[in-house]
């Protein structure tokens, strides 16, 4: 990775030098030799005053490629566009792929978006406005509207001619979509089939009519799952009347899978891990609110223990096992949580009731095995099987409860229509601290006359 | 998801009926109308005695598509192949993409692999043997050897003719690779450029010579990062002398990203989440070893508390804050761990020393803020600022230590050449329980004469 960033710095330094020394043509040539992704990195890495020269030298298509390849989450991409007069910015926007254009506009102040749209041809502005209105994390928000579409009654060579004409515009050229008179999607032709069949064949013979498509409102995670399963390079998006609205390409799906994984992982850790090069200060600011919130939840456990002060005074040995029971139950809860979140993400072949019963049984098995282990350990360690019994039973029940909570909380969050990944591991462990202590002290109270010998 | 699986059951039932009622031709037609991915699902879903009919009816190419589309991790794919005589199995293997063929062979007993290879043409067997020898999780293990390659001095129409000839074999047709006489990769031509330039143009004019490629030994995670960044549909793999060995296609990269995300997530939760439809029994068996291992680690904390029994007897109030301090420090450690694992996965633009110092500082800020909060809470709750001070200071130091451990452990694991994702959240929290208790009781000992008023 450091290698990559060194290469980037070299590129930026080299291109800056060319601009500084007035070698405009050499700059344009060198810049155009970069890979698309590098163009984005280099452009946003140039000092502002050099960017002001650069965008005057580069053509609109190149600049569109630059902006197509800057991640809206990573950089202040909207600032980069605002460095130019609106007329220029609009030329660039119009040359971008619609999905990236929309992502970029969504980062901008509403007033500015209105200005840009007012400078576009009316029908184009209308298309963009529609795309902006799709909810985030839906298929509609991911799709581009630059696809290849034809009618059914053409020959291979005629379709190939259309493909050649439109290939520069289209974001994905691997599939050509067949539409009927009402713009409904009725078939898909693969470019591979077009290339390997005779020119005079009717494309209807190589058109697949069993189409896998998604609706504009579908969740991006479900779309990603389909593309991953079917090994698609792109997937068509339709409205409720099967009219083709756009296509989602696999590069956007790769981003979705990454984004969802980071979300799940962040949730489990109770810290947003999407930025890895934060300053210490920013990093701390991200972590502290979670820790303080969990601290306050943890205070309820402290209060509970405090209310059992009499019991602890009678048997100080009870203090020894607090962290063992809360810790182990917390670990069990985290496991159940992770399994539940993952199952919600990838889907399950079983009914909800079956999953629930299965989890109860798994929790029972896990709790019993672990409780029995701790019973043996404590009995032999403290030569006191009544104490071992109290700790073992408390451990078993605490694990079953934590396990159930770890399973139920993400399921309930999902039912409420939210992302179950927000249910974090630390939240579960802190919550299960409370239930574990409650179970532990109540059971200890039942057994205390036995194990203290009082 | 349930919808999808219902569709699958319908497909299986329908195709089974056709076989049962002897409608062989209808079966073949219906089966061939399925999407590639569905073929794999349906075939492995048929009852064994019907599969024995099915493979006799379907041609080798279709069967190769079936096996190309069954996930080796999900199903007993090797058993499916062993249902056929070796001669038939080899015909299918030879029609599969080499990367999938190798994945499949790697699931098989060595003796059987030798049999299959002995039934192939010598050069083909040699190619496959080479691929089998690449280490898992490297670029070499992901690549397929069916790519499009040409020499530099051809015209567009000549290359297009070669593309058309080879399009059925190649796994990815979006790029054509240009090789020199020594088979070294010297350029890449995109199919899009071939389609949009005149037939009589020399391809050297549309060949990109700034090639992004990977080496066969590169880690799959690094390859995935490059493909994701550059939005590639495939990436070439070369040996140390820049000779082209194969290509990796984006569908395999999607699987890698998913696999790595599941690994990271499983690590953080201390449970393998890759199977979501386990039975309760299997699910419990997966969780119990981790819980017992962590329980044993947790016993060291219990032993430590036990050694402070005298202190707890003097001030039972100390028991109240054990779970608060261990819990909060554990949460902080989990956050640091998650950030460190993620940073190792995506790479960092900063030096290791800078990251280390930054994490120390972040831990200091987090610890101070949280310690101060708990000082205020305890002081007001128990009207005892000395107690508040003891708990607050202990909390601050415990967090800093847990934070540092959470950061250092994955970094050290990475330095040892292992996947840092094995460092689990529960391991960190259980370990930090020990250090937190040690810090807490030592500090409490210093303060005890003050806050007990003794």
From TrEMBL, chains A, B:
<keyword id="KW-0479">Metal-binding</keyword>
<dbReference type="Pfam" id="PF01769">
    <property type="entry name" value="MgtE"/>
</dbReference>
<feature type="transmembrane region" description="Helical">
    <location>
        <begin position="360"/>
        <end position="380"/>
    </location>
</feature>
<feature type="domain" description="CBS">
    <location>
        <begin position="143"/>
        <end position="205"/>
    </location>
</feature>
<protein>
    <recommendedName>
        <fullName>Magnesium transporter MgtE</fullName>
    </recommendedName>
</protein>
<keyword id="KW-1003">Cell membrane</keyword>
<feature type="transmembrane region" description="Helical">
    <location>
        <begin position="317"/>
        <end position="340"/>
    </location>
</feature>
<keyword id="KW-0460">Magnesium</keyword>
<dbReference type="GO" id="GO:0005886">
    <property type="term" value="C:plasma membrane"/>
</dbReference>
<keyword id="KW-0812">Transmembrane</keyword>
<dbReference type="InterPro" id="IPR038076">
    <property type="entry name" value="MgtE_N_sf"/>
</dbReference>
<dbReference type="Pfam" id="PF00571">
    <property type="entry name" value="CBS"/>
</dbReference>
<dbReference type="InterPro" id="IPR036739">
    <property type="entry name" value="SLC41_membr_dom_sf"/>
</dbReference>
<keyword id="KW-0129">CBS domain</keyword>
<feature type="transmembrane region" description="Helical">
    <location>
        <begin position="421"/>
        <end position="441"/>
    </location>
</feature>
<feature type="transmembrane region" description="Helical">
    <location>
        <begin position="387"/>
        <end position="409"/>
    </location>
</feature>
<comment type="function">
    <text>Acts as a magnesium transporter.</text>
</comment>
<dbReference type="GO" id="GO:0015095">
    <property type="term" value="F:magnesium ion transmembrane transporter activity"/>
</dbReference>
<keyword id="KW-0472">Membrane</keyword>
<feature type="transmembrane region" description="Helical">
    <location>
        <begin position="288"/>
        <end position="305"/>
    </location>
</feature>
<dbReference type="InterPro" id="IPR006669">
    <property type="entry name" value="MgtE_transporter"/>
</dbReference>
<comment type="subunit">
    <text>Homodimer.</text>
</comment>
<dbReference type="InterPro" id="IPR046342">
    <property type="entry name" value="CBS_dom_sf"/>
</dbReference>
<dbReference type="Pfam" id="PF03448">
    <property type="entry name" value="MgtE_N"/>
</dbReference>
<dbReference type="InterPro" id="IPR000644">
    <property type="entry name" value="CBS_dom"/>
</dbReference>
<feature type="domain" description="CBS">
    <location>
        <begin position="206"/>
        <end position="263"/>
    </location>
</feature>
<dbReference type="InterPro" id="IPR006668">
    <property type="entry name" value="Mg_transptr_MgtE_intracell_dom"/>
</dbReference>
<keyword id="KW-0813">Transport</keyword>
<dbReference type="InterPro" id="IPR006667">
    <property type="entry name" value="SLC41_membr_dom"/>
</dbReference>
<dbReference type="GO" id="GO:0046872">
    <property type="term" value="F:metal ion binding"/>
</dbReference>
<keyword id="KW-1133">Transmembrane helix</keyword>
<comment type="similarity">
    <text>Belongs to the SLC41A transporter family.</text>
</comment>
